[in-house]
């Protein structure tokens, strides 16, 4: 009976929390809790920074896709201009076409002469 009284009395004292209540923690536990809280805060801020970076990357990719789509549509139509190399290439193609036409005429003349000689 005395034991129960002491036990119940002790439990009542432990369950009464007030401004004057005291907490007993050893330094090791306190340092562990501080390290745990700092670690969690570090992970939180790291994740926030990664999320912000990924959001920025998505915005940049969306802009790149929009510009690529515009380029893909307008470039073949000639709405975005032409490169200087394209102009040089087009000029060379025109000269080659003229040379091919002249060579075709020469071949026709030679075929006609060859046909006359065979007769």
Can you tell me about this structure?
- The protein has 119 residues and is mainly α.
- It folds into two domains: 22-81; 82-119.
- The protein is built from three helices and no strands.
- It has helices at 2-15, 27-77, 84-118.
- The mean pLDDT is 85.
Radius of gyration: 45 Å
Quaternary structure classification: single chain
Q: Count the beta strands.
A: 0
Shape: rod-shaped
Low-confidence stretches: none
Main sheet attributes: strand count, strand direction, barrel closure:
none
Whole-number count of domains: 2
Keywords:
119 residues; rod-shaped
Compile the SSE list and pairings.
Blueprint: H1 2-15, H2 27-77, H3 84-118
In a nutshell, what does this entry contain?
84% of the residues lie in helices and 0% in strands.
